[in-house]
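Tutorial, part two.
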Amino acid sequence: KVLEDTNLKLTSVVTDITGVSARAMLEALLAGQADPAALAQLAKGRLRQKREELERALVGVVRPHHRFLLAEHLGHLEFLDEAIDRVNGEVEERLRPFEEEIQRLDTIPGVNRTIAEALLAEVGTDLERFPTAGHLASRILSPEQKARLAALYSGTNPRQLRKAIYQAVERLWQRPQSANTTNRKEAALLR
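Running the prediction step on this input gives:
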């Protein structure tokens, strides 16, 4: 709303208003920079290719009350970034005892550390509560779990997602556990 009121059309060119380039431009606006060409020069990465569009989008009038509101918004974003960093630090600390399991899951093609952490958080390390590998797979492939993993695994098709989940189940199931040969045979069926 603040940018609309200034007649700046930054959001029509920049897809992520919280990204590095947009933040640099907003910070420059706060510092009093009003030259569209100078602001457009702050573009990074692929946004550099849109400098002419940026120059046209950055023509507007920024008054003191706009600067105040922009500063408040940017301060709030900074606060949220710091909160996210604190939460990520806490998650990392709590997952430290499970580093070996995370590393094992991370070796599965298509499963990165984030997905490995999500699998561990959802399934846990006690596989004894799943009578068979099929039970474990159905737990992971429930609609709610699939949606959560799909959100983390965006940009892929369902078949790749399903394959990655089954591979993760296999890795989890290959952990040493009680000598139950039926479970091992059923795990082999998933391969």
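Residues 64-95 form the longest helix (32 residues). In part three we will examine how such features are distributed along the chain.
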